[in-house]
Design goal:
There is one protein chain. This protein is mostly helical. Helices cover 69% and strands 0% of the residues. It has 14 helices and no strands. Helix 1 runs parallel beside helix 12, helix 2 packs across helix 13 and helix 12 crosses helix 13. It is globular and about 65 Å long.
Length: 362
């Protein structure tokens, strides 16, 4: 394998897989309480939102760790401080703005519902009701313990990891001096990502594995075409495990697989198969989809809650039958992503500075 840690192909690959992951996150959050009484709906949820989608968040953490420690392996800790400073703009500012907008939304919700009762069916739950009665309770919940834009728990934990990144840097730099210590650290991190003792330790495990991959001098993941058999096997294993859990969820079998195996096999599979498909297509002159759409991944992530929970209920005004709920579950995440990209493109064109601030320049 190439010793390079970043190439144009890998940069494009990260953007494409990140976009794929945000679609999976949309499937996680497009859950219909109305569909719980339908076996077909619960089967689909088990396949997508509680199956394939399990790999989305850990892959995000893995990529985040890889990109954060990229280019630091032969430098002093000063480069980590510079990266921390950059994350204030790219992570902290969007985090604060998104939660502030959600706070305004949920504060206004009772007043709007009072004068427009017809919107009540679209409101699943006012999350501020979980925050306590005092303003300090609401602010603490909104910007930390919740957070109010609940999908941003990922960014909150990532910011904590960035805060402690100088310590992680020294550990990784020391460990990457030998293959033996790299293997030992990987063995120590594996229980964190497999057993998930807490959400934060689980996130730290994946983040550090990403850092370990990029900082060690022994392996590279920029071109995995030679691992094609492993990629195919991993994809097949992931699919079979997801199917087993889906059948278990609807009571057809009495056996369930731990989600960690779905995550591990899925990440290995799509990482390798992507190279096998698109390294070859690039050589034959066939280009991937226009990369411009992948630039809206973070925007979709920031805004999809609470709006997708409102958007997904609109078709149920026409019908809430089993086939309608199944159809909506499959289609709504894709339709919402398209609409969000259009909205993002319009905002980016009309208010470029505001859009750049909101998305952290992404």
């Amino acid at each position: 394998m190439s010793s390079e840690k970043m190439t144009p192909h890998l940069s494009k690959k990260i953007k494409v897989l990140s976009f794929f992951c945000i679609l999976l996150v949309l499937y996680i959050h497009t859950y219909y309480n109305e569909g719980e009484k339908y076996e077909s709906c619960m089967f689909l949820v088990s396949l997508f939102g509680q199956g394939i989608s399990y790999m989305a968040v850990p892959l995000f953490y893995l990529i985040s760790g890889y990109l954060f420690f990229l280019g630091t392996e032969h430098k002093k800790v000063d480069v980590i401080f510079l990266k921390q400073k950059k994350r204030v703009r790219t992570l902290l500012v969007p985090y604060l703005i998104a939660n502030a907008l959600n706070l305004v939304f949920y504060l206004m919700l009772p007043f709007v519902a009072r004068y427009i009762p017809s919107i009540q069916p679209f409101i699943a739950h006012n999350l501020l009701e979980s925050a306590g009665n005092g303003w300090l309770d609401k602010l603490y919940f909104s910007f930390f313990s919740g957070p109010l834009a609940f999908q941003l728990w990922f960014v909150r934990d990532l910011l904590v990891l960035v805060l402690f990144s100088p310590l992680l840097y020294y550990i990784l730099k020391y460990v990457c001096r030998s293959k033996t210590s790299c293997i030992l650290l990987l063995c120590l991190l594996s229980p964190l990502v497999y057993f998930r003792p807490t959400a934060f330790l689980w996130a730290m495990g994946w983040f550090c594995i990403g850092g370990l991959i990029v900082m060690n001098p022994y392996i590279s993941i920029t071109n995995c075409c030679s691992w094609k058999p492993l990629g195919i096997l991993s994809i097949l294993v992931c699919f079979c495990l997801v199917l087993v859990n889906a059948l278990s969820n609807i009571g057809l079998i009495n056996f369930e697989v731990r989600s960690a195996w779905i995550i591990i096999s899925g990440i290995i599979g799509i990482w390798i198969i992507y190279d096998c498909l698109f390294m070859e297509s690039r050589q034959s002159g066939v280009e991937l989809l226009n990369l411009r759409i992948y630039g809206y991944t973070f925007f979709i992530y920031l805004i999809h809650e609470p709006f997708i929970n409102i958007f997904k209920k609109l078709p149920l005004l026409i019908s809430n039958t089993e086939w309608m709920i199944d159809f909506c579950y499959l289609v709504i995440p894709i339709v919402f992503a398209i609409i969000a990209m259009v909205v993002g493109a319009v905002l980016q064109k009309m208010f470029p500075k505001l859009y750049s601030t909101f998305t952290g320049g992404r």
